[in-house]
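Quick start: what a row looks like.
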Amino acid sequence: MRQLEQDVKDFWNYKVDQSKNTDGSTNMKAAIALASKIVGRWLSGAPLTCSPDHDHPSLAEENNFLFEFQKEENFGKCPLVLTLPGLIIAMPKLTNQKNPLL
């Protein structure tokens, strides 16, 4: 049986590290935006497809949306998590590590 493990602390540490300002200081707004783009929802729960640039807590319960790749207005709004299956397969090749998920 496969079991998914999530390391929330490492997830956020990585997002903070990747979103630092040029002077090395923490940029939490950028870290939250990066994490939201990976997950597909903002911290409030608002879907990225309905609010791609900033959080709209009023949309937190919104689930009645249709994401259509072919629509030009949706370009760049695709949550990165949709690409994870390919990344999970490719990552060991990039890091020279054994893939624990396969």
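That is the whole record. The chain has one domain: 8-95. The helical segments are 8-18, 28-39, 84-95.
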